[in-house]
Design a protein that fits this description.
By secondary structure, the chain is an all-alpha fold. About 85% of the residues lie in helices and about 0% in strands. This is Secreted protein.
């Protein structure tokens, strides 16, 4: 009788430990998958912002300086701007969906607003200042999320 109870007790204990270990393994796998998804989403967002920013700056020079090297404001250039903005918004939404940090979500929104502001600046000085600020803000975003992914 003692042997049977001991065997059952041992089997039950082993089962509990195995179950806990399995649950912990699954939780770790889920956390790592989410971490990888965040890395992908944040990288995609930073890249999309850089492209959107590049297109806006190019179009600004076309509109305000009439630089022969830049070309003219064509429907294709406007379409490129719309596509870059759409891609940046999609990347922002994806980054926000995988983030559980309100600060990252808010910063992503602010970054988009600041980069979009490049479209409406009037002077070269304002453009230069905003370009420098948005470049640094994108770097700050990357540093912030990289620090939180470790």
């Amino acid at each position: 009788m003692v042997a049977v109870v001991g065997t059952l007790l041992g089997a039950g204990t082993t089962h509990l430990f195995q179950r806990r270990e399995t649950e912990r393994s699954h939780a770790l796998a889920r956390e790592e998958k989410l971490r990888q998804e965040r890395i992908d989403a944040y990288c995609a967002y930073a890249g999309a912002l850089l492209e959107y920013r590049r297109v806006l700056v190019h179009r600004w020079f076309v509109l305000h300086e009439g630089d022969e090297l830049c070309g003219e404001d064509t429907p294709e250039l406007r379409e490129e701007q719309y596509k870059a903005r759409r891609a940046a918004h999609e990347a922002m939404f994806r980054a926000q969906m995988v983030s559980d940090d309100a600060g990252v979500v808010e910063l992503a929104e602010q970054l988009m607003a600041d980069v979009t502001e490049l479209h409406s600046v009037e002077t070269r000085r304002s453009l230069t200042e905003l370009r420098a600020r948005t470049r640094q803000e994108i770097r700050d975003f990357v540093s912030l999320v990289a620090g939180r992914l470790r």
